[in-house]
Amino acid sequence: MTQRKPKTRIQQKNTEAILEAALVVFSQFGFRGSTLDQIAKEAGLSKPNLLYYFPSKEAIHTEVLEGLLDNWLDPLREMDENGDPIDEILSYMKRKLEMSRDYPRESRLFANEILQGAPRMMHAITGELKELVDSKVVIIRKWSAEGRIAEIDPYHLIFSIWSLTQHYADFDVQVRAILEEDQDQIFAEADSYLTTLFTRMLKV
User: Fold this and answer.
1) Residue 98: other Cβ atoms inside 10 A
2) How confident is the model at residue 111, as a pLDDT?
3) Can you give the residue ranges of the HTH tetR-type domain (predicted)?
4) Nearest-CA neighbor of 100 among 33, 200, 153, 175?
5) Whether 158 contacts 137, CB under 8 Å
6) Residue 127 per-residue DSSP state
7) N or C terminus: which one in the chain shows less Cβ crowding within 10 Å?
8) Rounded to an integer, what distance in angstroms lies between the CA atom of residue 181 and that of residue 176?
């Protein structure tokens, strides 16, 4: 089997520029509303040059999503069965909130894909994502059975963490318009509020 040659420095640079540009365009316009011309312009490349690296809009979108999903799973992977249950769940919530603060475009891109029925991510959602969530559900149920946290539905707990943290990225414009505060203040207040909310929910 012929091995692919490693990318040159300029090829690596252009690939990264295309993926960064695609993130900007896809997160703003969604998959359907985005074009190769928009991505090429954002990347500072010609469309033929872009097509040298990726054969289609679908190929670019798939690569962006695959990298995004791996990063999205990391905060949940870090939940430690041997740690203090409330601390572990709160730490997961805080990591998700930090991702909404630091990676709002990625959050909106993920949300857009889900709203469209996840046509390019369903295999990952029903595979790697579901397997990871199922494994953490087992741990949370164990903590509940041991009386270390209140009895709670682990799946809906995780869904609640997703929705309450990602809101600050997906609805950023609405949040800022209503609160009229800077980003640091918004996220500090969100952290305090969500910490209180989940602590009260989880305490026995």
Assistant:
1) 14
2) 87
3) 12-72
4) 175
5) yes
6) I
7) N
8) 6
Q: Which residues contact 15 (CB under 8 A, 6 or more apart)?
A: 7, 53
CATH code of the domain containing 1: 1.10.10.60
CATH number (domain holding residue 143): 1.10.357.10
Instruction: List, for residues 12-68, the tens digit of each pLDDT value.
Output: 999 999 999 999 999 888 888 999 999 999 999 999 999 999 999 999 998 888 888
Secondary element (H or E) of residue 114: helix 104-115
How many domains does one find in the chain? 2
What are the tokens at 196?
A: 């209180």
Nearest residue to 132 (alpha-carbon basis) of 73, 87, 82: 73
How far out from the chain centre does Cα 32 lie?
20
